[in-house]
Amino acid sequence: MAVSRLLRILAGLWAGAAGVSTIEFAIIAPVMCTLTVGLIDFGMGMWHQMQVSGAARAGAEYVELHGFDSNSIQTVITNATSYGAITATPAPAPICGCSDATSGVTAVSCGSSCTSGSGPHRYVSVGAQASYSMIVPWPGISNPITLSATAIARLYP
Q1: Distance between CA atoms of residues 110 and 95, nearest Å
Q2: Residue 123: count of CB within 10 angstroms of its CB
Q3: Nearest to 96 by CA among 67, 119, 126
Q4: Are 98 and 105 in contact (CB under 8 A)?
Q5: Which of 14, 19, 45, 97 is most enclosed, with most CB atoms within 10 A?
Q6: Residue 131 forms beta bridges with which residues?
Q7: Do 54 and 81 meet the contact criterion of CB atoms below 8 Å apart?
Q8: Percentage of residues in the chain with pLDDT exceeding 90?
Q9: How far is CA 35 from CA 43, 49, 89, 90, 142, in A?
Q10: Residue 17 pLDDT exceeds 70
Q11: Please, are residues 149 and 128 in contact by the beta-carbon 8 Å criterion?
C-alpha cells in the first residue's frame, strides 16, 4: 500500500503544472532585460552618431553660405545640436578635388588635372567628432566609442 501511495504522489507531481510559469519567467526575464538594455544602449549610440553627422553637415552648410572661416565653422559645429560633446575634429580645411558620380570627391593636388580633363575644384572638408560611453560595457566592444563624421562643401568663387 505504501508503494502505491508513493506512486500516486509521484504521478501527481509529474502531472502538476503549478509553478512552471514562475520557473519559465525566472529563465526568460534576465535574457529579455539584457536584450532591452542592449537595444537602448545601441539606439542611443546611433542617435548620438546622427547628431555628429548633423553637426558636420551644419558646418558644410555654413561654408556654402558664408565661405571658409575656420573659427566660425568650428563654432557652428559645436553649437549645431544639443549634444555637447561634439568637437570640430579634424579642423575644417580647404582641399582641392575632382568630383565623380560614383566616388564623390577625390582629393588631388591643386595644380593637377582631373580624369575628366578639367581642373580640380576647391572644397572644404568639415569634420565632427564625439565620444560615446555605453551604459553597459559589452564584451568585444571598446568603451567609449569615438563617433565621427565628415562633410565636404564646394567653395564657389
Answers
A1: 8
A2: 22
A3: 119
A4: yes
A5: 97
A6: 146
A7: yes
A8: 54
A9: 12, 21, 33, 35, 19
A10: no
A11: yes
Taking only the tens place, the pLDDT of each residue in 35-76 is 999 999 999 999 999 999 999 999 999 999 999 999 999 999
By the 10 Å C-beta count (0-12 exposed, 13-18 middle, 19+ buried), 41 is classed as: middle
C-alpha cell at 1: 500500500
154 grid coordinates: 564646394
Residues 6+ apart with CB under 8 A from 73: 59, 62, 63, 88, 92, 124, 126
Provide the H-helix boundaries in 18-100.
20-66, 70-79
pLDDT tens-digit series, residues 77-100: 999 998 888 999 999 999 998 888
Q: What are phi and psi of 99, to 5 degrees?
A: -90, 145
Work out the burial of residue 95: count CB atoms within 10 Å of its CB; fewer than 13 is exposed, 13-18 middle, 19 or more buried: middle
DSSP state, residue 134: -
Q: pLDDT-derived band of residue 6, with 50, 70 and 90 as boundaries?
A: confident
| DSSP 8-state code for residue 87 | B
What is the C-alpha to C-alpha distance for residues 123 and 126, in angstroms, rounded to an integer?
Answer: 10
